[in-house]
Amino acid sequence: MSLREIRIAAGQRNSSALQFHFGGREGLLQALAQRHLPRLAAIQDRLYADLVAAGGRDDLGGLVEVLVRPQADYVRLGSSERAWIMVCAEQAARPDVVLADVLGNAPATALHVGAAIHERLAPTLGPGLAIERIVAVATACLHLSADRARAEDALVLPAAASIRPTLAFEAWRDNLLDMAVAAISAPARDRSAAGGALRS
Question: Which of 102, 115, 165, 169 is 20 to 30 Å from the Cα of 153, by its Cα?
């Protein structure tokens, strides 16, 4: 989306207002990040504290939930929050996104939980594949949360009856978490063996 389209969608007539206040597109994204990232981090901190209190610090399923659930829960908080999840998914899909930049903006709890998941996966998958698995699952869940955000926004439109049916939010979220755990813990297959047998 161009700055002009953003200005029009915001109802701003002054063509230089965005440039004046934010210095351009990157400044606008930075301002949005400063608004939303602390709120997402607070959700993640609460989920991790609950996991630790329940004695699940080493539970892979619980760790994966702490990693990917905040974005899903954020979808239910309002239209601004849904828009932010969609922006994040769009940014994550850019080919010039570097993992180091993503990690540099990640909350401390996300980094800690990601490291704990890596520690659980690396002995069987190897360190490189373990990182790829974590990044792929987290990215996929972000995109699925953005899809849900679009569906939630569409439900208020007059043509909502024609939209494909969606699960109730809690059922959708629980299914997302189950899929994330299954994907992240799936064994790597040895495709050099006859019939693609699972690695031992």
Answer: 102
Reported as a single tens digit per residue, the pLDDT across 163-179 is 555 789 999 999 999 99
Domain count, the chain: 1
Q: Is residue 103 part of a domain?
A: yes
Least confident of 60-74, 90-104, 110-124, 172-186: 90-104
Q: Is residue 41 part of a domain?
A: yes
- 11 within a domain of the structure (yes/no): no
pTM, full prediction: 0.78
Q: What are the pLDDT digits (tens) for 102-151?
A: 666 788 999 999 999 999 999 999 999 999 999 999 999 999 999 999 98
